[in-house]
Predict the structure.
Amino acid sequence: MLRPNNKAVETWVMDEHVMVNITQSGCADFVAAYVFTVTGDPHAAEDRAYWLRRGSGLLLQLPIAPDEQKTRDLIAQAVKNLADKNLNRVEISETDSVEGQASASSRGTVVRIQYTVVL
């Protein structure tokens, strides 16, 4: 079955060292991806736990509508759990999950947080 490509993309410079790309997509299933590119931080990209905790903190700094704060806070806590328990994915409800990863790029360290809702 073909589904339309329902996608919204936003890029925001948080400060001189952090840029975030936010992509929301989906029809029956929903995916929100937060991709933070961080420069000027001496931690190695291989220090996944550090970067996931940093990503969780950056996520909490994003301006967000009041009715979305509870979900954002749950996602941030799930990302901390990924770091603390060295997991790749955590379920936060029967339908919702969070994944996180960190990698090096030519522009800095990239932290990707993905929130998925499967209906």
Remarks:
- The chain has a mean pLDDT of 93.
- The first strand starts at residue 7 and ends at 15.
- The first helix runs from residue 48 to 61.
